Protein: Beta-lactamase-related domain-containing protein
Amino acid sequence: MKNQLFTILILLLIVNVNLILSCPEYPTPIDIDQNDPLLVKAYAQVDELIQKKMKENRILSFIATIVYQDQIVWSKTYGNVDPLDPKSPPLTLDNNVRIASITKVFTDLMMYQLRDKGVISLDDPISKYYPEFSVRDLYNTKREISFRELASHQSGLPREVPCDFNLLPTDNCTEEVIIENLSKTFLILPQYKQTHYSNLGIALLGRTLAKAAKTNYEKYIFEKILEPLGMLNSSFSYEKVKDHMAIGVDLYPNGTYTHAGILELGWGTPMGGLFSTARDMSKFMSFWMNENPDVLDSSSVQEALSPIALVNDGQTAYGTPFEMYYDSVNSIWMKSKAGALDGYRSQMALVRPLKLGMFFSSLMYISSPDVFTRDAMKIIIPVYEALLLEKNSKPQNMNPEEGDQHKRHHPDQIPDQELVGQYADNEGGVFVVDNSTGYLLANFGDNNNYNVSHFSFDFPHVKRIQLVNTDPYECVFVEDGSNYELVYFNFGEKQSVQVMGQTMYLISKNPNDPLPSTSLNLKPNKRLNI
Structure:
């Protein structure tokens, strides 16, 4: 045990000190040996964790999958399809479960698709497409509730649909009844006052989006999301999945179990009505980590995974509709979504920089912050980072042509030595490029070094710079825009660079020469910081 921990620590230290970023950067996900002893041990520890948690919570059946890049790299099922019948078949990754509120991610994905197609704007008032909708507002706000506010739980709407939950799939809770009930309901908060989780808000979002797209919500999700992602065993119809359904149970305070009933959600389906499988959910996680332009543009994927509101603890945030948690031990954000209905508690958790995803599902409702994914990630993340660093994986360049470099001819690349030297302007600004460490590093005449890295094979004279040591600046301050920029090298009659809007000319090929006496040793962005 001590030897393996020592190995991990050594692996974390083998990267050149100049490449260790004060603002956390993560190694590029690449293929790694899934039979590596460190990974095998980590997966075994996850297995032990799940069994321990199942025993503590008296869970009888459980499903767990871990996805790396676009593959299931570890999975295990515990118990039977019917937890109360030991003679029922063993649980599999292809048994359906209720993913409950994880359905909300599909609803928000529909919103981004329609926005990208020009059907809606995120800031459109929903009354534009759903004129029947109204709610009582005592806050005198002039803005109407928008798609963006519904998707991120910032609308101020109550938590639940104003109709008895057990009656949602019946004629007692038709659209007309719900809209009538809403017209008598008050907003509980003004918009953006506080994040207030609202099942009603997401149900309203899905139904309004369907009206904007002039289609049926359930039909749209299947044709535009489930089918393109190959999630063909997922459905909103219990009739279609009941033969493969894993049966959820409820645990009573007296220690007895009973089968949980399954009711569809009627008008409220967009808030939590999808039935899916662990294998299908692995495909969904892979989409969010690897993207698929046929489903959603990469920029919109990034937008959907971005926070909208920071919760007061400073470590939790809400997006549209991902719930985000900062793992301070591993210095990384986890993007997740949980779902809970009678008999089921599921969690999808993503660590996108490492392209790691987990889908855990309990066939019994449990009251917990998550379904053990945080603890499992704390086991897995350090091992993946150590193994990737061991392979000398470089920090991600956010290269727009990544994966395409071998498909077409590119201009000759410029040797690193051609870029090295001191550049200066007539106002005292300097830019120094050095490769004496084996890596291209740059600075502006002070102690803050930047990695100089590839940007585009078609534009070899353009390089990316990224701040690597932030002293005396803290992480929050380097996000002002000066820590991640492009440099344009010009090899004309007089060699020069253009960086942060300034043009500087080569004055020496030796980066270690004394700086010009006119240098102010100031970064250009400090003079230009407006």
Q: What stands out?
A: The chain has two domains: 37-390, 416-528. The domain at 37-390 is CATH 3.40.710.10 (Beta-lactamase).
